[in-house]
Amino acid sequence: MTSRACFLVLAFALVAAVGVRAAENTIETPQYTVVHAESDFEIRLYRQSTWISTPVEDISFSKATQIGFHKLFQYIQGANLNNSRVEMTTPVLTGIIPSAGPFCSSAFAVRFYVPTEFQDSPPLPLLDSDLTVENWNEKCIAVRPFSGFAKDSNVAQEAALLEASLKKTPWAYVTELEPKDGEDAYTVAQYSSPFQILGRVNEVWVSFPTSDGCHAKLLNTKTGHV
Hints:
Elements: H1 3-23, E1 32-37, E2 42-46, E3 49-57, H2 61-76, E4 92-97, E5 107-113, E6 132-136, E7 139-146, H3 155-166, H4 173-176, E8 186-190, E9 202-207, H5 212-222
Antiparallel strand pairs: 1-2, 2-7, 3-5, 3-6, 4-5, 4-8, 7-9, 8-9
């Protein structure tokens, strides 16, 4: 089967999984609290969560997402040490990791949010699957929504727009920090099925080094200082 044929099979399966559950309004997403909101960005405090991640080396964001999701889809269909099928969730994350490759963005991490049923004990990845269980502490994240398709031609632009929005805020320092080796410079979150044309939902995320800023903002808001 060609890579394009493989992608189409995966896409149709994703449409079925996301479409049916979305219609039932039961599809899971990670839980968060909105700490601050503007017209073009939000600051969110995400709860502790568990993700399945796979690294991908490629110069294309779109291709890396496709390759990574193929591995993750096999995992949720039962290709894991527990032979467990896992419900589809959103968003699918693609982290862009700075590197010395072409365009300085040839390393990616594609992630799947583990549903509540398996948050405390996710099915273990196969030993040769190149998948990793990631346990996230609570995270403070700056988020910019955008519509249409997330692709090579627009994701860096959306990240730059988020940076511009943050420049005149107390959170400007977040985009000025150099990510540590292996950490995402920014992340693209995709919520919609590949064949959805209208009303697509995407976000670009930039993580804070700690969650302290979110907690301080929440405390000030609740005590009437903001």
